[in-house]
Design goal:
two-stranded antiparallel ribbon, elongated, Arc Repressor Mutant, subunit A, alpha+beta, single chain
């Protein structure tokens, strides 16, 4: 992940609604969620959520797939892990770090 991509991703997450939406998509896992289900879950208006999902997609943090008449949004786990990797690349002053990846593909300490 480049510095520019990292800044774009962090900027997208620097809004409470987008952060909540992204976290909900992470919890939903690979199945993802439709915007209506996500809006109901978060208690936000669907049109406002649409704007936030577009920002997350523009930053590469979520993917969107058309399934029939529905859009399915999913957290982009490789991109999320790339962001975490960029942020922790030089942790522990270059020594061996205790960061590992769990079965869902998420990095844990």
């Amino acid at each position: 992940m480049t510095e520019d991509q990292t800044v774009l991703a962090l900027a997208a997450l620097a809004h409470p609604q987008r952060l909540r939406a992204f976290r909900a998509l992470v919890v939903a896992g690979p199945e993802g969620l439709t915007p209506s289900v996500l809006a109901d879950h978060l208690g936000v208006a669907r049109n406002a959520l649409s704007f936030h999902l577009k920002e997350l997609a523009h930053a590469g943090l979520v993917t969107v797939e058309q399934q029939g008449r529905n859009l399915i949004y999913r957290a982009d786990f490789p991109r999320m892990n790339g962001l975490l990797g960029y942020l922790t690349e030089h942790c522990c002053q270059g020594g061996i770090c205790e960061v590992s990846t769990n079965e869902a593909g998420c990095q844990t300490c």
